[in-house]
Amino acid sequence: MASIDYLLHEAAVGYAIFKVVHQQNVVALHQKEVAAASADLSKFGKMVTLVHFAPWRNAADALEQIHMVSEGMMSDYLKSAIELNIPQAKKQKVVLGVADKNLAGSIRAVFPGVECETGDTSEVVADLLRGVRLHAPKLLKGLTEGDEERAQLGLGHAFSRAKVKFNVHKNDNHIIRAIAVLDSLDKGVNLFSQKVREWYGWHFPELYAIASDNLTYAKLALFIGDKTTLGDKDFHELAGIVNEDEEKAQAIVDAAKISMGRDISDVDMTNIETFSGKVVKLVEYRRSLYSYLVEKMSTVAPNLATLIGEVVAARLIQKAGSLTNLAKYPASTLQILGAEKALFRALKTKSNTPKFGLIYHSSFIGRAAQKDKGRISRYLANKASIASRIDNFSEHPSTKFGEVLRGQVEDRLEFYATGKKPEKNADVMGKAMADLLAEGDDMAIDTEMIDGPLPSTGDTPKEKKPKDKKEKKDKKEEKKKRRHSEVNGTIDAEVDGEKKKKKKKRHSEA
């Protein structure tokens, strides 16, 4: 086993380099006495000595250094500390104990004369680093009691915030979760409503044909209960459940009087009413969740939601993974987003690729003629891509561009149907920007990202003078002479070469 020469300790207050004066072997580490010696500062202090301590400059520098250590990269600050304090010999390498294996690889790549050992490759390094971490507040010079604990707490909070940093007001993760829950609720509500119809249909089968809506049927089952107790006194309350439809309420009362359903015990009716109440609450929660999704989309992606609707826009964001990913997609990818299986199947069988994916659920494609569905889906994907980029890179949410883009799609549908020529995109977007500025809203343009003007040289461009006919003729004649001279030169060279070959043959024959 190679002896450990130095140790690198990445503390919350800075980098520390220790020189190993005395170390135990691997066999001795398994003894209780040797293991207890690492916990005693008087004994462990004789095993290592502090060579250099490089504290952080400030809190921002500490966060940057720890972030680089977590990524396995060596900073210039650490590089200079190793160069100044660890001697490098050409014949024999210096062994350095490091806690992180990725950082050890970076140090080994920069310093060929340093051999790095980690806790995974050497038990001695793991034991020594464990002792350094235990006694670091007393081994590091210039620290008072409690300094390292406070530094660890502050740096831990800063590092965690940097890892999970996000904008509270524009967070598309909530949209992704909300649309996923909404889809699950739709499936659950449909399934549970069908079970209520099947269960309560044994007692009141005529209600199935009168109340077709799931929520209305569940409310009626919860209100009616035993059909024998339903009479004319409940007419007004029934009308309120069926949206003030008196004819339907009277039909329910009449059907209850002549119903062919079987009688149900009180216990069974109690379970049916409980289950119907759960379904009603689930449907009401689904409505509140949809309202939350609409409100969230108006903050995160208002233009995209105005163009194709909140649900379709939320599904596009969910499929892409985030609004930023959706903004990076080209319009051709957005057009078939959600139809990946059909696309791969078409590529495998060399058949026609799909024309649309999730945007098929938009109302525009349903209103277009069968022959125009492919064209309108391509046009709609183009406008949706523009809307997603505006939403992603703008700081102040506004629906002005979404309304304009929706109007453009409407005009394109009219153009396909009647042939009326729509306005140009540049004119329409220019009007939208002018209206937005007229209302007092700024465009929130990042001036640092604007391309700077080209450097002016100060010289005015020279005007090209028209060339005379004589000059053109002279240049043509010069070109012809050059070509003739080149051709003659090559011919003369070939002739001279043939003459030389003939002379050589004569001399060889003689």
Automatic annotation (TrEMBL):
One of its GO terms (cellular component) is box C/D methylation guide snoRNP complex. Pfam families: Nop, NOP5NT. Residues 500-510 have a biased composition (Basic residues). This is Nucleolar protein 56. One of its GO terms (biological process) is ribosome biogenesis. Its main location: nucleus. The lineage of its organism: Eukaryota, Fungi, Dikarya, Ascomycota, Pezizomycotina. InterPro entries: Nop56/Nop58, NOP58/56_N, Nop_C, Nop_dom, Nop_dom_sf, NOSIC. Residues 447-510 are annotated as: Disordered. Residues 300-418 form the Nop domain. It comes from Anthostomella pinea. The keyword Transcription does not apply. GO terms for molecular function: snoRNA binding. It comes from the Eukaryota. It is found in: Nucleus, Nucleolus. Belongs to the NOP5/NOP56 family. PANTHER family: NUCLEOLAR PROTEIN 5 NUCLEOLAR PROTEIN NOP5 NOP58 (PTHR10894), NUCLEOLAR PROTEIN 56 (PTHR10894:SF0). Required for 60S ribosomal subunit synthesis. Keywords: Nucleus, Ribosome biogenesis. Residues 460-477 have a biased composition (Basic and acidic residues).
